[in-house]
From TrEMBL:
Residues 30-496 form the Aldehyde dehydrogenase domain. Gene3D superfamilies: Aldehyde Dehydrogenase, Chain A, domain 1, Aldehyde Dehydrogenase, Chain A, domain 2. GO terms for molecular function: oxidoreductase activity, acting on the aldehyde or oxo group of donors, NAD or NADP as acceptor. The active site is at E273. InterPro entries: Ald_DH/histidinol_DH, Ald_DH_C, Ald_DH_CS_GLU, Ald_DH_N, Aldehyde_DH_dom. This is NAD-dependent aldehyde dehydrogenase. The lineage of its organism: Bacteria, Bacillati, Actinomycetota, Actinomycetes, Mycobacteriales. Keywords: NAD, Oxidoreductase.
């Protein structure tokens, strides 16, 4: 049953997509799960089922891996010229741009985020990612090395490296940026000449499946891109599969550790983009208004369901009360509603489970003695909405300070001086991102050098770019996605030495 609660009309193309039975993409064909089973995917603004998708399991993962292996070893993919891969990837980027609104609405319905933001950010950036890596396909190079060869005095040699694809890659993505996280992995993996199996999150399989249709239409050979929708057991089967050469994962730190265990069997390569509890540091000399606006975006963007969310707001004690009051006031004015309402600024959380988890943290924070300057409870009485919440009077040991909540909740703490800010910011098992707000350029760079985080944003937050590497220190992950770094993730180096 397709039930859509929407303020703006849903495009006919989205209705048509939802009416198609969504199946698995294996070896260039759309097929049902071997078991014939399906599962419903839900609109978080209403709790209603949008459509049924195939329930892929280990046996389907195995079929997809065999297809990807064949396509990598003997299909047309390995013999295709880099500029042919470039043209295919560029085509995917163009189609995403042409059909941005359709992808944006579908993402909004499946995930709950604003359709306008999904179109302008998730889809537009995904298109950019495909074009950026389309360009890389023709620029992957080895090097020549002037060797000394001390064990072969008098000999003459020609030594060089080849940068080759890793092979069959399993890409496991979460529900917070379903299309974008898939794009971050698919585009560099394919540019480098790998074949892939994509496992979307159970909550948000739809844009991945629509993207699968785009890959088909663009002319990717069978088996190069396979998509298996399903649950954690499908992800586990992919991570443990002995014919998979690499897993690229974005999601929770807990599942990241399971993937490391599962990967041991054949020592497949693993890259991980995991959780965070990022610090956003506001010095007293910051531009007050832009720091307030930026600090709210830092923890509220995507309803707080961002791995980089700046959920530990560290504020110079001299401005703490004024600053947190202004943050709370801004947050309390945010317009809450369903994603297809163009005026919505804060949508629902992804699922009942996530709603229950965030609600548990709110109650735990209050029981520990934190005070909510605004929010602290659910919004409305249907859908998975939580009021934006600003906690003060928090202690470093509170769970709302230490653990990733993944909802629109921030814990604000005062600090004393630069060293106090750095110590508080680094007091976390995570190290994904950090923000710094100050007009003092030296202090900004000095602080950036001392923060243990993979990304540092100064006088802004979420300062991402496709060309900039992204990933985590500490338990926030292994490796760097985006930029040239992602090409490193999806290639391996062969050293060749010729005796002349
Ligand atoms: P998750 O469990 O880590 O899920 C991420 C992906 O891994 C999904 O595709 C998931 O499939 C799959 N998966 C689950 N168990 C697996 C296993 N044993 N082996 C291989 N793959 C497996 O994340 P979640 O449950 O959706 O969210 C839980 C928490 O993770 C959130 O509250 C948040 O704190 C964090 N999170 C972080 C990020 C991030 O970007 N860093 C993103 C999302 C969530 P299923 O969807 O079928 O379970
Ligand atoms: Mg859904």
């Amino acid at each position: 049953m397709t039930v859509i609660a929407a303020a703006t009309p849903v495009l006919p193309a989205v209705h048509e997509f939802l009416a198609r039975t969504a199946s698995l993409l294996i070896d260039g064909e759309w097929v049902q799960a071997a078991s014939g089973r399906t599962f419903g995917t839900v609109d978080p603004a209403t709790g209603n089922t949008l459509t049924e998708v195939a329930h892929g399991e280990a046996v389907d993962i195995d079929s997809a891996v065999r297809a990807a292996r064949k396509a990598f070893d003997t299909g047309p993919w390995p013999s295709m010229k880099p500029n042919e891969r470039e043209r295919l990837l560029w085509r995917v980027g163009d189609v995403l741009s042409e059909r941005a609104e359709e992808f944006g609405q579908l993402e909004s319905l499946d995930n709950g985020k604003s359709a306008a933001i999904a179109t302008a950010v998730d889809v537009a950036w995904s298109a950019d990612v495909f074009r950026y890596y389309a360009g890389w396909a023709t620029k992957i190079e080895g090097s020549t090395i002037n060797v000394s060869m001390p064990f072969a005095p008098g000999g003459r040699f020609h030594a060089y490296t080849l940068r080759e694809p890793v092979g069959v890659c399993g890409l496991i993505v979460p529900w917070n940026f379903p299309l974008l996280m898939a794009a971050w992995k698919l585009a560099p993996a394919l540019a480098a000449g790998n074949t892939v199996i994509l496992k979307p999150a159970e909550q948000t399989p739809l844009t991945a499946l629509l993207l699968g249709e785009v890959f088909q239409e663009a002319g990717f050979p069978p088996g190069v891109v396979n998509i298996v929708t399903g649950f954690g057991d499908a992800g586990a089967a992919l991570s443990g599969h002995h014919d998979v050469d690499k897993i690229a994962f974005t999601g929770s730190t807990e599942v990241g550790k399971k993937i490391v265990d599962a990967a041991k069997g054949n020592l497949k390569k693993v890259s991980l983009e995991l959780g965070g509890k990022s610090a956003n540091v506001v010095f007293a000399d910051a531009d007050f208004d832009s720091a307030v606006a930026g600090s709210v975006t830092a923890w509220m963007f995507n309803h707080g369901q961002c791995c980089v969310a700046g959920t530990r707001l560290l504020v110079d004690e001299r401005i703490f009360d004024d600053f947190t009051a202004a943050v709370a006031e801004t947050a309390s004015k945010v317009k809450i509603g369903p994603g297809l309402d163009p005026t919505t600024e804060l949508g629902p959380l992804i699922s009942q489970d996530q709603f229950d988890k965030v609600d548990r943290y709110l109650r735990e924070g209050l029981a520990d003695g934190a005070r909510a300057l605004t929010g602290g409870k659910r919004w409305g009485d249907s859908g998975f909405f939580i009021e934006p919440t600003v906690f003060v009077d928090v202690k470093p040991e509170f769970s709302i300070v230490r653990e990733e909540i993944f909802g629109p909740v921030v814990a604000a703490m005062p600090f004393d001086g630069e060293s106090g800010a750095v110590a508080a910011a680094n007091d976390s098992i995570y190290g994904l991102a950090a923000g710094i707000w100050t007009k003092d350029i030296s202090k900004a760079h000095r602080t950036a050098q001392q923060l243990k985080a993979g990304s540092v944003w100064i006088n802004q937050y979420n300062g991402f770019d496709t060309a900039m590497p992204f990933g985590g220190y500490k338990q926030s992950g292994w490796g760097r996605e985006l930029g040239q770094s992602a090409i490193d993730l999806y290639t391996q180096i062969k050293a060749v030495n010729v005796a002349l």
